[in-house]
Amino acid sequence: MRRWRDRYGAGPLHLLSLLACFALAGYAFLQASHGPLPLRMAVWFVGALIAHDLVLFPLYALADRSLTALRPRRTVRDPGAVNYLRVPALLSGLLLLMFFPLILRRSEGPYGAASGLDQAPYLGRWLLLTGLAFGISAVLYAVRARRGPGPSPAA
After folding, report:
1. pLDDT digits (tens, 9 = 90+) for 80-120
2. Which of 97, 100, 103 lies closest to 119, judged by CA?
3. pLDDT score recorded for residue 73
4. d(CA 144, CA 155)
5. What would the mean pLDDT of 74-84 be, rounded to a whole number?
6. What is the pLDDT of residue 74?
7. Are 136 and 78 members of one domain?
8. For residues 55 and 138, what is the distance between their CA atoms, to the nearest angstrom?
9. Is the pTM of this model over 0.85?
10. Does 27 lie in the same domain as 92?
11. What is the domain count for the chain?
12. Does residue 152 carry a pLDDT above 90?
């Protein structure tokens, strides 16, 4: 087993799970290639990859760096407020990314034709979920700050 780790860099379970992921991705690719619009799906995938890696990732990395630069040095009573902003912001951003055509009412025709439903409640629900996420995070931060610091790491 030691020789395996020295040569491969991880355990055999890592290799097995990696092969399973590649098999699942290959299966998904084959299923998508037999669909009605494989070229359109490939263009969408490449566009999403470029939009995320070249536009979105630098923007939210800059926002995160700005948040961490603005905060004061951590004190014993400060449990790290930045983490209590990151999680709800991530959840809100992911929901917006997944449902932006419905939230911004950009697919009224196709959505209404396919589902028979209206897009009107999506903006309100997204705002409600965003508010709840930040509210719960604020309560958790207040509880943790009030309790004081947890056990300190061993020096």
Report:
1. 678 888 899 989 999 998 888 889 888 777 777 788 888 88
2. 103
3. 62
4. 23
5. 64
6. 57
7. yes
8. 29
9. no
10. no
11. 2
12. no
Specify the higher pLDDT residue, 113 or 75: 113
Token digits of residue 136: 């719960």
Within a domain: residue 141? yes
- Co-location of 32 and 80 in the same domain: no
Q: Which amino acid is at 143?
A: V
Neighbours of 137 (CB within 10 A): 19
SS3 of 10, please? coil
Instruction: Give me 79's structure tokens.
Output: 């449990």
Is there a single domain that holds both residue 33 and residue 79? no
pLDDT value for 127: 96
Query: The domain containing residue 6 runs over which residues?
Result: 1-37
Give me the residue label for tokens 């700005």. Answer: 66
Residues 79, 142 share a domain? yes
Contacts of 5 (CB under 8 A, 6+ apart): 11
Give the 3-state secondary structure of residue 119.
Answer: coil
Q: Is 19 exposed, middle or buried (0-12, 13-18, 19+ CB in 10 A)?
A: exposed
What's phi and psi for 8, nearest 5 deg?
-90, -35
How many Cα neighbours within 13 Å face the side chain of 95?
18
